[in-house]
Structure formats: C-alpha cells, structure tokens
TrEMBL record:
Keyword terms of this UniProt record: Hydrolase, Metal-binding, Protein phosphatase, Pyruvate
Xref: Pfam families: PP2C
Family: Belongs to the PP2C family.
Domain PPM-type phosphatase: 110-523
Listed GO MF terms: [pyruvate dehydrogenase (acetyl-transferring)]-phosphatase activity; metal ion binding
InterPro entries xref list: PP2C, PP2C_BS, PPM-type-like_dom_sf, PPM-type_phosphatase-like_dom
Protein name: Pyruvate dehydrogenase [acetyl-transferring]-phosphatase 2, mitochondrial
GO cellular component: mitochondrion
CDD domains from the UniProt entry: PP2Cc
Keyword Metal-binding: yes
Any coiled-coil regions, as ranges: none
Keyword Ubl conjugation: no
Organism this protein belongs to: Microcaecilia unicolor
C-alpha cells in the first residue's frame, strides 16, 4: 500500500464523519456516544467475589505494560507509526496462560491459551473470560461481544461462568455452599480466574450479583439433583437464567442510584456470547449470537482444515429466520426481519440484555419513566416499528458437543470483528503458519492477463519473500489481529496500511472495523491420545 492509500483512508474518514454523526442517533444501539452520565462509575481491578467464591490465580499470566492509543486530531493526524509503536498497540492486551499438565486429578487436554483484543469502539465493547472450575472439572473460555455499549458484555464476563459452575455442582457441594453463606463462614472457591492485568469489575454491584447467584443455586438445591446438571443443560440453563436476572434487575426499584443506573445500562445494552467448556476430551460450545468458535485440525498428511463449532445467529442463517417466523404471527412474516436486521435494527438474532426487543412497550415506558436520566445513561427512548408480539430476541444458546481427537490442535473463539476481516480457513492457515514458524506453501494462481498488474506481481514477490521468515508475534491471537487489520487484498501485511488503521482516532476507527477479541486454546495431543486409548 502506498501513501496515497493512507491519504484515501483519511479522506474517506473525514467524509464519513458527518454521516456517522447522523447515523449515530439512528444506530444508537450499535454506536455509542461519549459518556455524558452525571454519575461516575468506580472501577475495581479485583473480581466481584474475590475472597468469597473464587481463587484469583495470576501467577502464570505474562505481564505486558499498558499502552494507550494516541487520539489524533486533524492537526496532528498522521499514519507513519514506528514498528515499535505498532507492536505496543497490538500487544497491549495480549495474554498467555500455561495450564498445569496435571491438576492432581487428571492430565489436562489443554496446553495453554493465548488471548488478545484490539478496540475500535471507545471504550471497547468486547469482553473475554477464562477460568478453571475448582469444585467440578473443566476449563471455561468465553468471548462476549457487546453492542449499544459495553455494560452488558462486562456483566456477562463477570457472572456467566459462576452460573455455569454452580449448575455443574452436585447437591452436596451446593448445600455446603449455602451452609457457608448462611452461617457467614468461609465459602469454598468456585472459580480460579485467569485474568489480564487490565481487566476490571463492577465493584459497586458485587452484592447484587452474589445475591442473585445465591437465589439460583438455592433453586438448584430444590431440584434435588444428586450429581448436578449435565454440561449441556448447565450451559443452557445458565445462559437463560442470567439473561432473566439481567432483565429482572432492570425492573426492580433500588435505593442506590448508582446500582440502579448500572442495572438499567446492562439491561438496555446487549451482548452476544460464545463459551467453551473443556473437560479432558469433552468439548462443549454454547453460542448465542454472532461470535464464532472453530477447531484447527491437522490431518496425518499435514494438511490443515477448519471445523466450525458454531453457527452465526443472524438473518443470513435460514434456520434462524424460520425460527423467528414460527415464533410470531404470520402477519409479521415480512417485518420481523427487515434489511437483514431484527425489526430492521439489530444484526444478531440471539443476545443477552437488549430488553428493548424483549419487554412490552408498556413495561419499557414504565421503567424508563422512573429512571433518573435516561439520556445521560445513553438509553434512547425509541419504539421499533412493527413491535407487536415481544419477545423477539432470546439468549438461549445453541450447544455443540465434540470429542477431542489427537488431530484437533487448537480452538479459536472470537468476536465477529475477526470474522468480518478473515474467514475460517484464513484463520486456521495463519495459526498453522504461526505454529510452524514459517508460511505454508500455498499453490499460486495461474497468471492470467487480469493478474499481470505491477501491484499483483509486487505482492506475489512479497509473499515469496515472506516464506521462511518467522512471525512478528509470539502470541497467536496477536498474529491474527495483525493480519486482520494489516492484510491487503492478497493476504499480505502492508505496514503502511497497518499503521494507518492503527492511527485512526477512536471515533473514526469503528467505520473501518469492529472491536476484535480472540482466544486461542492449544490442545495437548499426547494426553488426548492417551484418553482415546482408555475409551
């Protein structure tokens, strides 16, 4: 890419800025304005139940210094970032955690996980989580893609794993948990979180979250299920129950205005979620929305392929369109999805929060009338057209089970910001190259007349020169982000394009890409093969 292309990006950004201003109001549920709230939120770097329900293990996290992206103005807008500056931006949120091969009970099927995220929104609307279940077996990994703000995704990242973990606990474990709470004794930890140093939690709502989690495990106790729920049922019930609690919290009057405001923001914003539970060779993936999970598979002959574990829940999914039309009267068949959006507004057709697509008009009006200042909370009062038979949106996940095999090398979970830029096969190829340290040999297309341009020949030479050169990044998730942002049309990173895309100020970056959040889980093939022999 030449400097001319950099200028085109800037020129396009300037032209589109005013369009963005107009669209921002109409798309307020997707693109948030700067926070004008009159109340301030306090952030804590400690999980909301630290010392109560979890063990905060951070000893294996590889620390990285925090780097804040420069916000350019027209006066100092430039694209020429130094390579070290580019690396600082790309690596600011990367994480690598090595899993103990033996946990005292079983040999782990997971070697390590690597994660990273790059914001386009300010603040980033994506969240990620990773944790080990301490009272039951298994590792949990999750990606949460927020819209209309980050608050719903943030809430999911703190809470959903607890709901899943207690759902998997036996009757005896749950009774011990309740006994400790009731008698104010030390509560056995439920999760060991594997957090990045920049992660934060909503400290002010900790007691509210714990209270509702406790109500949930009390109901589980009443089920009198001696061994706990199956993984599939635990994932399904946890998704649906947490979404129900988010809805309830948005309706219930609260004395604390700060907690009340936050509960409203969580309920009226939204988030999609993709969660993986890995227990030895048993992999379950729960998905609600348009995040995606795929497996990287290497066959005996060395070739790589992708195995999708999720389906995007949007209007391009024919089964989802059929489901929506069956759930609503025939008179709404042409209006439930318009312009490839739910009611002409929302891209995903499954999501947490988003009570504007779930509550009745009367309930929405009643709740918002009693709110302090909905405009300050970035909650806009609008009524979707053709809104007759809510709810139109569900957080019920689609569950996929897969028994791990030695040829399954890694799992990629990512928000749609990655999949907008790279397809499944490209992601697997890039990670395979990253694992091997060199670019894989890819058959080069025949040079037709259309392909004899100087630009094409130059990029072909760049590809050939790149073979045998090691990756810029040690972290696989960072490697993917670098390519997603910096690749040209031929799949080659162009430093000028990468620099230009990372130089865009936050209010313009969203016009070119979405937030990108990725977690890559690497499997221990030897242990998986051992489990296969014990079958």
């Amino acid at each position: 890419m030449s400097s001319t292309v950099s200028c085109q990006i800037l020129s396009s950004a300037r032209r589109g800025f005013f369009i963005l201003q107009v669209r921002r109001c109409w798309y307020s549920r997707y693109i948030t304005v700067q926070n004008k709230a009159k109340w301030k939120r306090r952030f804590s770097r400690t999980p909301f139940t630290q010392g109560l329900l979890e063990y905060a293990g951070t000893e294996n996290i590889l620390p990285r210094k925090t780097f804040f992206r420069h916000i350019s103005t027209e006066e100092d807008f430039h694209f020429q970032l130094a390579p070290s500056h580019i690396n600082d931006i790309l690596r600011a949120n990367e994480q690598c955690y090595k899993i103990q091969e033996f946990d005292g009970r079983n040999a782990s099927s997971v070697l390590k996980f690597e994660s990273n995220q790059l914001a386009a929104n300010a603040p980033n609307e994506d969240r990620r989580s990773a944790a080990t279940c301490l009272q039951t077996k298994g590792l949990l990994f999750g990606i949460f893609d927020g819209h209309a703000g980050h608050t719903c995704a943030q809430s999911l990242s703190e809470r959903l794993f607890y709901y899943i973990a207690v759902s998997l606990m036996s009757q005896q474990m749950l009774e011990e948990l309740e006994f400790a709470m009731e008698h104010m004794k030390p509560v056995p930890p439920v999760l060991q979180w594997h957090k990045h140093q920049n992660d934060y939690t909503y400290r002010e709502v900790a007691s509210l979250y714990v209270d509702h989690l406790r109500v949930y495990w009390q109901e589980l106790i009443e089920l009198d299920n001696e061994v706990g729920l199956s993984v599939e049922d635990a994932l399904t019930y946890s998704f649906k129950r947490l979404d129900s609690d988010i809805s309830l919290e948005g309706q219930v009057p609260m004395k604390n205005d700060l907690v009340r405001n936050l509960a409203l923001q969580v309920a009226f914003s939204g988030a999609t979620a993709c969660v993986a539970h890995i227990d030895n060779v048993h992999l379950h993936v729960a998905n609600a929305g348009d995040c995606r999970a795929i497996l990287g598979v290497q066959d005996k002959d060395g070739t790589w392929s992708s195995l999708p574990l999720t389906q995007d829940h949007n209007s391009l999914n024919e089964m989802e369109l059929l489901r929506l039309r069956q759930e609503h009267p025939k008179s709404e068949e042409q209006t439930v999805v318009m312009d490839n959006r739910l009611l002409g507004i929302l891209m995903p057709v499954r999501a947490f929060g988003d009570v504007r697509f779930k509550w009745s008009k009367e309930l929405q009006q009643s709740v918002l009338e009693n709110a302090c200042d909905v405009e300050a909370l970035n909650i806009y009062q609008y009524a979707p057209q053709n809104y007759h038979t809510p709810p139109y949106l569900t957080a019920e996940p689609e569950i996929r089970y897969h028994r791990l095999r030695p040829q399954d090398k890694f799992l990629v979970i990512a928000s749609d910001g990655l999949w907008d830029m790279l397809d499944n096969e490209e992601v697997i190829r890039l990670l395979a190259e990253h694992l091997s340290g060199v670019n894989l040999e890819v058959p080069e297309p025949e040079l037709t007349n259309e392909r004899r341009s100087l630009g094409y020949m130059q990029n072909l030479l760049l590809k050939r020169r790149a073979r045998g050169v090691q990756s810029y990044d040690q972290n696989g998730a960072t490697h993917l982000i670098r390519h997603a942002v910096g690749n040209n049309e031929y799949g080659v990173i162009e430093q000028e394009k990468l620099s230009a895309m990372l130089s865009l100020p936050d209010d313009l970056a969203r016009m070119y890409r979405d937030d990108i959040t990725i977690t890559v889980v690497y499997f221990n093939s030897s242990n998986i093969e051992m489990y296969g022999k014990e079958k």
